[in-house]
UniProtKB/TrEMBL annotation:
Similarity-based family: Belongs to the UBE3C family.
Matches recorded under InterPro entries: E3A/B/C-like, HECT_dom, Hect_E3_ubiquitin_ligase
UniProt-listed Gene3D superfamilies: Hect, E3 ligase catalytic domain (3.30.2160.10), Hect, E3 ligase catalytic domains (3.90.1750.10)
Top EC group: transferase
Name of the protein in its database record: Ubiquitin-protein ligase E3C
Catalytic-site annotation from UniProt: 934 (glycyl thioester intermediate)
Length: 966
C-alpha cells in the first residue's frame, strides 16, 4: 500500500469525496461608492427623460388642439366671410380675410378682395393716411400680393394692387409701406419676374421705393439698399439685369447712387462680388463726381477681380481640348475694362486724386484699387486707362514713395524674410514698382527731364538702395533655407516678387544713363556663383520663385541645387548686374565651353574640321552660301578657311585659327557695310537694320539669320569684331521691345520733337497731327497709320501720350521686327540669348567689339613673350616699346589688328590672349615686319635705328596685308 501512486482523502463526516460549498444568502460583495453614484445618476436621468416625454406630450397635444381649433375657427370665419363678402364693410371684411388667408385655398378670394380694393381705391386712398388700422390692413394685404406674384393666375391682379397703393411718394402711408414690403421679399419677387421676362412693366416698380428715400430714415434707406443689392446687384448678372435694369436705373433721377456708395462703404455685411462691382460701375450717373467713399468702394469690390482672370484663362485652356461651348456668363473682363476706361470717369478720378493727394487714407485706397487691377493682367497698365494715367503722373508716384519711406521701421523690417511683418507697405511697393517701371519707359531723359523733376538723383539713389535690398530679401524668401520657413505663394506675392525685381532692373538701366549711384554700388555685395551652374547648364533651366528649378525635359535628372545655389541662379537670371562683369564674362566662357559636351569637344580639338573655300572677291556671297540657313552647320565646331586670292590662287598659310578670325572679321565688316543695304548708319555713325530692306532683298530674313550666327560665332570664339551697333538695336537683341527713350539713339531730332509735343502747353490740336507717319521706301513716300483709321484721328492733349508711344513703338519695334527676330534667332543658334542676358546692352557691345578705352601698353608689355634672339633687354625691343608708346590710339589698334587680327584688346586684359602676344626676330633689317595672326606672333627684323624701325612698322600695320606680306 505504501507504493500506491495516489492517496484517498477522507473527511471527518465520513465523505470520501469533497463537494463545492454553496452560499444561498446572495451577493456578498459590498457596493462601492462610485458604483452607487453612477446608479443613482442613471435612475435620475431616466426620471428626467420620463418628465420630458410627459411635458413634450402635453406641448404637442396643446399645439395640435390649438392648430385644430385655429383651423376650425378659420373655417368658420371663411364661411362667414363668404356670406358677408358682398354686403359687409370693406375694412371688417379685410380683417376677416387676413385672419384666415391660406395661399393654397384662398387664391380666388385674394383676387376678389383685391378687385374690391381697386374698385374703392379713391375712397380708401383718401382715408389711408388718417386711419392707422386700415393702413396696417392694406399693408398686410400688399404683402400677400407679393406672394401672389409667384402664381401666374394671381400675378396680374397682385401687380395692379401693388402699383395703385404704392403710387403716391408724398403720402405718409405709402412711404412707410416700403420698409415693410422690402422685408417681406418685395425685391426678391420682382427679381423673379424680371428673370422670367414678365411682359408687364416692372422697372417702374423696382425704382418706386427709391422715390420715397428722402422721407425715410437712414436705417430704412439702408434696408432698401441692402435688399436691392442682395437681390439685383450681388447675384450673378443675368442678361435682363445687364440690358434692362442697369440702363434704366442708371438714367433714373431718383435712384440714390450716392447713398448706395455710402452704404457699401460703411456696411460690410453685403457680398462683395464681381457682379456688384460691374453693377456699381455701370450704374454710375453720367456726371457723378468721385469721392473718397466711391474710391474706397472700388478698392474693396475689385479685390476678387483677378479670380475672374484666372477663371477665364482656365476656360480658355480647356477649350483647346474640348468642343467650344457658348459661355453663359453675361459679364466678362472686357466689360470691366470698358467701364473702367470710360474717359470721363478716368478724368474725374485723376482730377480728384490730384486734388486730394495729401489725404493718406485716400492714397491708401487708390493704392489698393491699383494693386487689385494690376493683379488681373500681366500688362494691366496698358489695359486700364486709370493705371496708365496714374503711372505717368510723377506727382502721384512721388506721393507713394513718400508714403513708403515714411515708416522707416517697416522698411528695415522688410530686409528680414518675414513677409507678414511688412504690413500694408508691400501694396504701396507693388504699385510703385509697376508704375515706376512703366514711367521710365516713357520719354524721361531729355532737355526737360521729367524724371529729374519728379525724383532727384539722391531720391533715385536711396530708392535703388532700398529696392535692391528688398529684392534680395524676396529672393531669400522665395528660396528658403528650410521647409519650415517656406511661404505659400499667393498671386499677390508672386506679382510683388516680379514687380520688385523688374523695378530694380529699371533703376539699374536708369543709372546707366544718369549715374546717380556711386561706383561699385550694384556689385558691393559679393555673390557666390557655383561652378556647377555652367557645367550642368542650370542657367538654361527655368527657376520659379517658391518652387525651385523646373526641368522641361522629364528624362533629364539633374542633381538638386542647394538653397545658396538656387539664390545665386535666381540672381543670375533676374539681377545679373549685381555680379561683377569679369565674373559674368568668365561664366559666359565656361557656358560656351561646356555647351558642346565632351564628345563634341574631342571632335572640335583633334578630329577633322570643316574646311570652307572662300574667294576674296566674293567674300560675303561664298560665306552666305556655305554657312547659310540651307547649308547650316554647327558653328560651335571649329571651321577652317582656305582663301582664294584675286588671282584665283590659294593663299599661303595654314589656318590655325588666325585665318578664320580674319575671315570672320572681314565677312562681318562686309555684312554691316551700309552700301550692301542690310544695315544703315544713324546720325552718330552707329549701325542698325535697314527698315526698307524688303525692297532690296526678298529673302532678307535668311541674311539677317546668317549675320546673327556670325556674330554669335565671334562671341563664342571670344573674337572681338569692330561693329559699332546702335544702342536701341543692342537693346532689342536682349529684349523684345525697346522703350521710347531709345528713340534718341535712332533719330534724335524726332526724339526732341516728341518731347516738345509732350510738354506743349497750348492746344495740341493746333499742331495738325494725326495718328499717321510718313515712311520713305527708296524715294517712294508712304503714309502709314499708327492705329486703325489713324488718318481721321487727330492728336489732342488727351491722346498725345498714346501718339508718342505708338510712333516710338513703330520706329523702334514694328518697322524692324522681322529683321531683329531673324538676327536674334541666328545669334541664339550659336550663343543662347539667355546667356547674353547676363549682360546689359552696353556690356554686350563690349563683348562684341571690345572696350573702347585706350589700349594699355604697359599691360601688353607685361604679358608679351619673346622668341629668337629677342629678350626684354634687347636694343630692338627697347626701341620697339619706345615707338609703340608714342603711337596714336589708331596706330595702336592697327598694330594689334596686324598681329592678332583684332583691333581691340581682350576684355579681361592681355593675360587672356591665347596664344600670348609674342615678338620673334626675323633676320636682317632689309626685311619687313610680318605677322602670324593664328599664333599672335609679330616677326620683327633686328633693326637698331629708331626711325627705320618706326617707318617699317608703320608701313606694315597700315597695309594690313596679313599672311601675304612676306
Amino acid at each position: 500500500m505504501a507504493n500506491m501512486p495516489f492517496k484517498l482523502s477522507y473527511s471527518f463526516e465520513g465523505n470520501y469525496r469533497t463537494r463545492p460549498e454553496q452560499n444561498l444568502s446572495g451577493d456578498g460583495r459590498k457596493e462601492t461608492r462610485d458604483r452607487l453614484l453612477m446608479r443613482a445618476h442613471e435612475e435620475r436621468q431616466k426620471r428626467q427623460e420620463q418628465r420630458l416625454k410627459l411635458s413634450s406630450t402635453v406641448v404637442i397635444q396643446a399645439f395640435m388642439r390649438s392648430y385644430l381649433v385655429r383651423q376650425r375657427v378659420k373655417h368658420e370665419e371663411r364661411l362667414k366671410y363668404d356670406q358677408l363678402e358682398s354686403n359687409s364693410d370693406f375694412k371688417h371684411l379685410l380683417g376677416k380675410f387676413l385672419f384666415f388667408y391660406n395661399p393654397h385655398i384662398d387664391g380666388q378670394r385674394l383676387v376678389r378682395i383685391c378687385d374690391k380694393l381697386l374698385q374703392k381705391r379713391t375712397e380708401i386712398l383718401k382715408v389711408l393716411d388718417f386711419d392707422e388700422s386700415l393702413c396696417w390692413l392694406v399693408r398686410r394685404l400688399l404683402s400677400l400680393c407679393l406672394d401672389g406674384l409667384k402664381n401666374e393666375h394671381l400675378v396680374k391682379t397682385s401687380m395692379e394692387c401693388i402699383r395703385v397703393f404704392t403710387a403716391d411718394a408724398t403720402s405718409r402711408a405709402k412711404v412707410e409701406v416700403w420698409p415693410y414690403l422690402v422685408t417681406k421679399g418685395y425685391f426678391s419677387r420682382l427679381r423673379e419676374l424680371l428673370d422670367k421676362d414678365y411682359a408687364g412693366d416692372i422697372m417702374e416698380l423696382i425704382e418706386r421705393p427709391f422715390r420715397s428715400t428722402i422721407s425715410l430714415s437712414l436705417m430704412q434707406v439702408n434696408l432698401l439698399l441692402s435688399e436691392f443689392c442682395s437681390q439685383f446687384l450681388c447675384p450673378k448678372v443675368s442678361s435682363q439685369v445687364k440690358t434692362i435694369l442697369i440702363p434704366y436705373m442708371q438714367k433714373s433721377t431718383v435712384f440714390p447712387y450716392n447713398d448706395l456708395i455710402k452704404f457699401l462703404n460703411t456696411n460690410k455685411n453685403y457680398d462683395a462680388t464681381n457682379s456688384l462691382l460691374y453693377c456699381i460701375l455701370a450704374l454710375e450717373p453720367v456726371l457723378y463726381g468721385p469721392s473718397q467713399d466711391s474710391i474706397q468702394v472700388l478698392a474693396t469690390l475689385t479685390l476678387n477681380l483677378n479670380q475672374l482672370s484666372v477663371l477665364e484663362n482656365s476656360e480658355a485652356d480647356d477649350s483647346d481640348d474640348e468642343a467650344m461651348e457658348v459661355s453663359t456668363e453675361q459679364v466678362h473682363l472686357q466689360d470691366y475694362i470698358y467701364l473702367f476706361n470710360h474717359s470721363e470717369r478716368v478724368k474725374r478720378l485723376i482730377l480728384y486724386i490730384d486734388e486730394h493727394n495729401d489725404n493718406e487714407e485716400l492714397l491708401m485706397s487708390v493704392i489698393q484699387l491699383c494693386q487689385n487691377l494690376l493683379l488681373v493682367y500681366k500688362d494691366a497698365i496698358r489695359k486700364y486707362m486709370l493705371l496708365f494715367m496714374l503711372a505717368l503722373n510723377g506727382n502721384f508716384l512721388n506721393k507713394i514713395w513718400d508714403l513708403i519711406t515714411k515708416d522707416e521701421v517697416t522698411i528695415k523690417q522688410m530686409n528680414s524674410t518675414a513677409f507678414s511683418v511688412w504690413k500694408d507697405i508691400h501694396k504701396a511697393l507693388l504699385v510703385f514698382c509697376d508704375m515706376f517701371t512703366f514711367y521710365t519707359e516713357t520719354l524721361t531723359d531729355s532737355e526737360s527731364s521729367d524724371t529729374s523733376m519728379t525724383f532727384k538723383n539722391s531720391n533715385l539713389s536711396s530708392m535703388a538702395d532700398i529696392l535692391k535690398n528688398i529684392a534680395l530679401s524676396m529672393i531669400d524668401l522665395a528660396f528658403p533655407m528650410c521647409r519650415s520657413s517656406a511661404v505659400l505663394p499667393s498671386r499677390e506675392l508672386l506679382h510683388f516678387y516680379s514687380s520688385c525685381l523688374n523695378c530694380v532692373k529699371t533703376l539699374f538701366t536708369l543709372d546707366l544713363r544718369k549715374n546717380f549711384c556711386k561706383a561699385g554700388f550694384w556689385t558691393r555685395q559679393k555673390i557666390h556663383v557655383s561652378q556647377d551652374l555652367p557645367k550642368k547648364n542650370y542657367l538654361s533651366k527655368t527657376i520659379r520663385p517658391f518652387y525651385g528649378v523646373v526641368s522641361e525635359d522629364e528624362d533629364e535628372h539633374l542633381p538638386p541645387l542647394s538653397t545658396i545655389e538656387q539664390r545665386s541662379l535666381a540672381i543670375l537670371q533676374q539681377l545679373p548686374f549685381l555680379i561683377e562683369f569679369n565674373v559674368r564674362i568668365l561664366l559666359l566662357r565656361e557656358l560656351c565651353r561646356y555647351s558642346i559636351g565632351d564628345n563634341m569637344r574631342l571632335h572640335r580639338d583633334f578630329l577633322s574640321d570643316s574646311v570652307i573655300t572662300i574667294r576674296r572677291r566674293y567674300l560675303y556671297e561664298d560665306a552666305f552660301e556655305k554657312l547659310s540657313y540651307q547649308n547650316e552647320i554647327d558653328l560651335r565646331h571649329r571651321i577652317r578657311i582656305q582663301f582664294i586670292n584675286n588671282a584665283g590662287l590659294e593663299e599661303a598659310g595654314i589656318d590655325g585659327g588666325g585665318i578664320f578670325k580674319e575671315f570672320l572679321s572681314e565677312v562681318l565688316k562686309t555684312s554691316f557695310d551700309p552700301t550692301r543695304g542690310f544695315f544703315l548708319l544713324t546720325n552718330d555713325n552707329m549701325l542698325y537694320p535697314n527698315p526698307n530692306v524688303a525692297v532690296l532683298v526678298d529673302n532678307f530674313t535668311d541674311h539677317y539669320y546668317f549675320i546673327g550666327r556670325l556674330v554669335g560665332k565671334a562671341i563664342f570664339e571670344n573674337t572681338l569684331v569692330d561693329l559699332p551697333l546702335a544702342e536701341f538695336f543692342l537693346v532689342k537683341l536682349l529684349i523684345d521691345r525697346a522703350s521710347a527713350y531709345y528713340l534718341k539713339s535712332l533719330d534724335p531730332i524726332l526724339y526732341r520733337n516728341l518731347l516738345y509735343l509732350r510738354e506743349y502747353s497750348g492746344d495740341v490740336q493746333d499742331l495738325g497731327l494725326d495718328f499717321t507717319t510718313v515712311n520713305n521706301d527708296l524715294g517712294e513716300t508712304k503714309v502709314i497709320e499708327l492705329k486703325p483709321n489713324g488718318t481721321n484721328i487727330s492728336v489732342t492733349s488727351d491722346n498725345r501720350l498714346e501718339y508718342i508711344h505708338r510712333l516710338a513703338n513703330f520706329k523702334l519695334n514694328t518697322q524692324i521686327k522681322k529683321q531683329c527676330n531673324a538676327f536674334r534667332e541666328g545669334l541664339d543658334n550659336v550663343v543662347p540669348l539667355l546667356w547674353l542676358r547676363l549682360f546689359n546692352h552696353l556690356e554686350l557691345q563690349v563683348i562684341i567689339g571690345g572696350d573702347t578705352q585706350e589700349m594699355d601698353i604697359d599691360d601688353l608689355k607685361a604679358h608679351t613673350s619673346y622668341g629668337g634672339e629677342f629678350t626684354p633687354e634687347h636694343s630692338t625691343m627697347i626701341l620697339f616699346w619706345k615707338i609703340v608708346e608714342k603711337f596714336t590710339d589708331t596706330q595702336k589698334k592697327q598694330l594689334l589688328k596686324f598681329v592678332t587680327s583684332c583691333s581691340r584688346p581682350p576684355l579681361l586684359g592681355f593675360k587672356e590672349l591665347n596664344p600670348p602676344f609674342c615678338i620673334q626676330s626675323s633676320g636682317s633689317e632689309n626685311r619687313m615686319p610680318t605677322a602670324s595672326t593664328c599664333l599672335n606672333l609679330l616677326k620683327l627684323p633686328v633693326i637698331k635705328e629708331e626711325q627705320l624701325l618706326k617707318t617699317k612698322l608703320l608701313a606694315a600695320i597700315e597695309q594690313q596685308a596679313g599672311f601675304e606680306l612676306s
